[in-house]
Design a protein that fits this description.
Distance between the termini: 101 Å
Strand order of the largest sheet: 16-15-14-17-18-20-19
Strand content: 5-15%
Largest sheet: 7 strands, mixed
Radius of gyration: 36 Å
Structural class: alpha/beta
Length: 821
């Protein structure tokens, strides 16, 4: 290398400046160190562009020129030139340069399968696998094309096998740079001496090197004030400075990288109109965002140029011809860059918004006007509509949730622990993988969190507008219709119903999108608020009982929310232990039938998403939908159980075993407990017994509460059965239908044990008599039973339950009070 440098200096003394020399550094490997003290901005190196490997130089090589037409891309031509020069050895024009090129690389392209496993879920792994496939295909295609033009022996004559070809390509990936030409076009070059400079995130963007057009030289400037012997760095540019790209192209990463990014690829189906709107909106959004960054940079007076992320790249855009036929569609594929400093960049949000619009919405000129207003907002915070924004954010939340779940190797905590170890204690490639995946996981987590916060804010806004609505409320205190139904919204609901029905396709589309993007607790909260609004109770204290999800609660005062039961349902669904996939032994149910709690979780998400989408799109609800939800919920209660068995509740009951359940209904709770190996005896009467004056049974016109016997072990027996099991804790769940009758009090009279567990509403856990047919003390136990139990037992512990709409049941353990001495 020193001989090469001397020859350079002698040949171009008049135009070549050189104040650096190659040196092996302990932390970065081969790099350039300064020969004397230098100030920031001082010229460190000038080297003629003609010395480098470029497309122009390759096409001047007679051997390469013969096969250049076989190359699919410019880099192929240059790679063949590099291979040809290596084959020529010392006789090559660029022999000294070729001698400096590395023979091995740390890029993931050359990692083993076991080493690549550490990159699972990362952009780097996807890019690496694509590069491997692309490089292999390019080599095979080149070989075939050369044979087709009579140059089949070219590769063999120049000793270019696949490994040699991949070596040349890898050198270009890691050592080429983009240079801006005077005409505004860019050229790529691998320039000797310059290609040894290492990258630093501290080097000012856009200030470390450029093409000097007058001298046709690549000029390198000092990125900082350097002392003699210090390493001089350049910036590889913001577009290739994320660790995933540094590893993919160059084979290294840096700690605390300020330019971390994550690539996310979205595919949507477009017709001619949607393609046009999407391309225009994406371009406008990116321009507005980047122009704002540029304006703020100019005001700041910073020396370094601003960080300008790529933002997006259209990987596939259907041609006009593909979409010319009426109703024809095609895929539109865009890769979005998500910077850590902007986890939800405006173009990404813009694409999500356009994606969620229906064809009929997109055809509306006013909607298209709203799209461009949204795109031209530099902050990206202007909505097309609340309903659209809600669906767009829901889609982004789910996308980043999937990205987060894709990192299946390690976790944030363990990766941070590994990275904190001394450098020598972690294998180099493993350390690179840790830096890449921890950075991308961090960005995905931030994007997920931001989309969640933004979605919650829109849901709060939509719900607040809906439940505080006064327009259309009947003001006639003597209105017979309103009085008979206990609802002052009937006239307005009937009046607005045609508009609501016209919006059903839009509502359905948005509902599907937000169904899985919000937690179960948020959906049940929406449903309960809808009923309370309908009955005129959103301003009453009872409304606080609906609060199960603080993040989307619409009122300023947020009551205490215990959503642990609903979070438990989410966990059970993730583990597929909630009966949602059906079960092998359905007993009297249907083969493969979804059981509790799976069917509950599924239905509550559907109902909540539908009502929320109606509120967002229409500003009001269709009362028939509320009636349908109520009817379906009642049918599911009768078929399955009145309360939803969660893992938390079942674990608690297991601790209370042995158990005896009286009034077990269909026995679903007993079945779930028995499946866990809990010692439980369950009794139920086959029909309602008039002896217990069960008024609730008469109200629902049924002789049995549940339709299906889910548990084979149920014994025939009523309240008298409790007398046989003083040694067991007594479990009572919704034993007095509609909160009436003597079934529970009779069971209490027969029980002589010390522990009772009730599951159902209690006088301090109920929505009260909010609607006709409801009672202030709840619908699970009679007022008399509650009074008698509280007189003889002390409340020991209370657990929240997952509830059907407009019920507020809890699990309570009671201990018999010691008699006075």
């Amino acid at each position: 290398r020193r001989g090469f440098a001397t020859r350079d200096m002698a040949r171009d003394d008049a135009t070549l400046a050189r104040r650096v020399e190659a040196h092996d550094f302990a932390d970065t490997g081969r790099g350039q160190r300064v020969l004397r003290d230098c100030a920031r901005g001082e010229v460190l190196l000038e080297i003629p562009l003609e010395r480098g490997f470029t497309l122009a130089a390759a096409l001047e090589d007679d051997a390469v020129k013969r096969v250049a037409s076989c190359c699919a891309r410019h880099d192929d031509v240059v790679a063949l030139h590099v291979c040809a020069e290596r084959f020529r050895g010392e006789k090559a024009t660029r022999a000294a340069h070729v001698a400096t090129l590395p023979r091995s690389f740390d890029t993931a392209f050359f990692w083993s399968e076991e080493e690549l496993r550490e990159l699972t879920g990362t952009t780097c792994l996807r890019e690496t696998m694509n590069l491997r496939e692309e490089t292999k295909n390019d080599y095979e295609t080149l070989t075939k094309k050369m044979e087709a033009i009579g140059e089949g022996g070219w590769m063999r004559e120049h000793e270019v096998d696949y490994e040699r070809y991949a070596w040349a390509r890898s050198n270009l990936w890691s050592r080429q740079c983009d240079l801006l030409m005077p005409d505004g076009k860019r050229t790529r070059a691998m320039v000797p001496t310059f290609d040894i400079f290492n990258h630093s995130a501290k080097a000012p963007l856009g200030k470390t090197h450029k093409l000097n057009a007058e001298k046709n030289c690549v000029t390198v400037y000092a990125a900082d004030d350097y002392k003699a012997g210090e390493q001089a760095f350049i910036s590889y540019g913001s577009g290739e400075a994320a660790n995933s790209k540094l590893l993919t192209w160059y084979g290294f990463c840096i700690d605390d990288n300020p330019y971390e990014e994550l690539d996310v690829t979205l595919t949507i189906t477009v017709d001619k109109l949607r393609k046009t709107v999407l391309e225009t909106a994406l371009r406008a959004s990116a321009v507005a965002y980047l122009q704002d960054i540029d304006a703020r940079w100019r005001e700041s007076g910073d020396y370094a140029e601003p960080y300008l992320p790529m933002l997006y790249q259209q990987l596939y855009t259907p041609s006009a011809e593909e979409l010319e036929v009426e109703e024809s569609t095609a895929e539109f594929i865009v890769k979005h860059t998500v910077p850590e400093r902007e986890p939800l960049p405006p173009p990404l949000r813009m694409m999500a918004r356009v994606q969620q619009l229906g064809d009929e919405e997109l055809a509306d000129p006013e909607v298209r006007k709203a799209i461009m207003a949204s795109a031209n907002d530099k902050t990206g915070n202007t909505y097309i509509s609340k309903a659209n924004e809600m669906a767009a954010l829901a889609s982004l939340k789910l996308i980043f949730q999937d990205v987060c779940e894709g990192f299946t190797v390690g976790d944030a905590e363990s990766d941070a622990t590994e990275l904190a170890k001394p450098f020598a204690d972690v294998p180099y490639k493993r350390r690179l993988a840790l830096l890449v995946r921890s950075g991308e996981r961090r960005i995905a987590t931030k994007a997920f969190a931001e989309s969640s916060v933004r979605l919650d804010a829109v849901v709060r806004d939509v719900t607040r507008t809906a439940v505080t609505r006064k327009e259309g409320l009947c003001e006639d205190p003597k209105c017979v219709t309103c009085k008979s139904h206990g609802c002052r919204w009937l006239h307005e609901l009937r009046k607005r119903r045609p508009k609501v029905e016209a919006m059903l396709p839009t509502v359905a589309r948005y509902a599907r999108q937000i169904e899985d993007a919000l937690p179960v607790a948020a959906h049940i909260q929406t449903i309960n608020l809808a009923y309370l609004w309908l009955m005129g109770h959103t301003e009453d204290d009872v409304a606080n009982r609906a609060a199960t999800n603080a993040q989307t609660w619409p009122f300023d005062t947020i009551p205490t929310c215990d959503a642990s039961a609903y979070a438990d349902l989410e966990r059970m669904a993730d583990l597929e232990i909630d009966g949602s996939a059906g079960e092998e032994h359905p007993h009297n149910g249907k083969e493969g039938e979804m059981l509790l709690p799976g069917v509950y979780t599924c239905k509550v998400k559907q109902w909540g998403a539908w009502l929320l989408s109606q509120w967002a799109a229409c500003g009001i609800l269709d009362i028939t939908d509320l009636n349908s939800i109520g009817a379906e919920a009642a049918a599911l209660k009768r078929r399955h159980a009145c309360s939803v068995p969660t893992s938390i509740a079942l674990d608690f009951l297991a601790e209370c075993a042995p158990l005896v359940e009286v009034g077990a209904g269909g026995g679903l709770w007993a079945r779930r407990l028995a499946e866990r190996g809990v010692d439980i005896i369950a009794y139920d009467t086959p029909t309602f017994d008039e002896e217990y004056q069960d008024g609730g049974a008469a109200k629902i016109g049924a002789s049995k509460l549940t339709e299906v016997n889910w548990f084979d072990g149920i014994r025939k027996g009523g309240p008298e059965s409790a007398a046989k099991h003083a040694d067991r804790a007594l479990l009572l769940s919704w034993i007095d239908i509609a909160g009436e009758g003597d079934y529970a009090t009779a069971t209490l009279d027969n029980y002589t044990g010390d522990t009772i567990i009730t599951i159902g509403e209690w006088r301090d856990h109920t929505f009260g008599d909010y609607a006709p047919g409801t009672t202030a003390t709840g619908m699970s136990f009679s007022r008399e039973f509650q009074r008698e139990l509280e007189a003889a037992f002390d409340r020991d512990e209370t657990l929240p339950c997952a509830n059907w709409p407009m019920f507020d049941s809890v699990l309570i353990r009671w201990r018999r009070r010691a008699p006075p001495s």
